[in-house]
Design goal:
Blueprint: H1 3-16, H2 18-53, E1 58-62, H3 65-70, H4 82-94, E2 98-104, H5 106-116, E3 134-139, H6 145-152, E4 158-163, H7 169-207, H8 209-217, H9 222-263, H10 272-301
Helix pairs in contact: 1-9, 2-7, 2-9, 2-10, 7-10, 9-10
Length: about 300
């Protein structure tokens, strides 16, 4: 097959259907940008889980005198005793799922509370003896929180066993919901792009029906006739994939690195390595998807 002929036919097809080709490029670019963004968002959620779940603790709050007076349950028997503290700590250190145990005194709890909620109007009325002592437990696997909860939630002297992951779940669920929404929009844009590709191939095949008929009469093979149409679609898809990669780079540079990273310093955002790792997949899909769509469309609109 002569490469010059194929390239000339591609140029003719693109010029004749310039508007539709532009629409294909934009549709492919948006759908693939959403696809790449969804992959990056999923990786971001995974990174956040690994980062924060590695830092959060399981807190075992102990009963103080105020709890014993105002609450039932385990605290109804009175404030935690020194023997109960030693027993709880010893049992925690024996558990295979526990990585480390740190005891927080009432004074330390009061200090941390003032650091976090210093502007609260109730701070001047609080005293250290009103704060609860607690064991801060670091787990080897944060998902095994229930092992600790079931073992200590009913212990005498224990008011509550709290998993700090609960504070992160709403944020992670929101990000997962946004990821699903992006995937839904991506699927819609992908359908639109496929319809445009098929329509573009149909119009291109109709506009060149005379040339196709002549080539068929002189014995040209089906592959020889179909190749320019398929490569037109692949070229448009490749341009769309390139534009999608540019959009991903712009989002990472302007939105993530230069804005979000400065506004939200408690989140470890994904870096350029994650963005560049997704680009080959985006380009491959942008190249193969239009080519396959064109090949299927030609079986109906180009009888050779």
């Amino acid at each position: 097959m002569r490469a010059q002929f194929v390239m000339s036919e591609i140029g003719v097809g693109l010029r004749r259907n310039l508007t539709m080709t532009f629409a294909v490029i934009v549709s492919v670019a948006l759908s693939l940008a959403l696809f790449g963004g969804s992959l990056l968002m999923r990786e971001q959620v995974g990174t956040m889980k690994g980062y924060w779940y590695d830092k959060v603790n399981v807190s075992i709050y102990l009963c103080n005198k105020n709890d014993a007076q105002s609450q039932g349950g385990a605290c109804a028997k009175g404030a935690v005793t020194e023997d109960q503290k030693k027993e709880i700590k010893a049992d925690l250190e024996k558990m295979p799922v526990v990585q480390s145990v740190r005891f927080e005194t009432a004074d330390e709890a009061f200090k941390h509370y003032k650091e976090q909620f210093g502007n609260s109007p109730i701070v001047p009325f609080l005293t250290p003896d009103q704060m609860q002592e607690a064991f801060r437990v670091k787990l080897k696997d944060p998902a095994k929180y229930r092992v600790v909860s079931s073992a200590f939630s009913q212990r005498p002297g224990v008011q509550e066993v709290e998993d700090q992951r609960k504070t992160l779940e709403p944020l992670l669920n929101l990000l997962n919901g946004m990821n699903l929404a992006a995937l839904g929009v991506m699927a819609l844009m992908l359908v639109v792009a496929l319809m445009l590709i098929i329509n573009t191939v149909r119009v291109s095949a109709f506009s060149r029906r005379r040339e196709t008929g002549i080539m068929r009469l002189v014995g040209a093979s089906s592959f020889y006739i179909q190749t320019p149409f398929i490569m037109e679609a692949a070229f448009a898809g490749l341009l769309g994939a390139g534009l999608a990669c540019v959009l991903l780079v712009c989002v990472q540079y302007f939105l993530v690195n230069n804005w979000l990273a400065h506004q939200i310093d408690v989140i470890q955002f994904i870096g350029w390595d994650a963005v560049f790792a997704k680009m080959p997949l985006v380009i491959a899909i942008g190249l193969l998807m239009p080519a396959l769509a064109a090949f299927v469309a030609l079986r109906k609109y180009l009888k050779v």
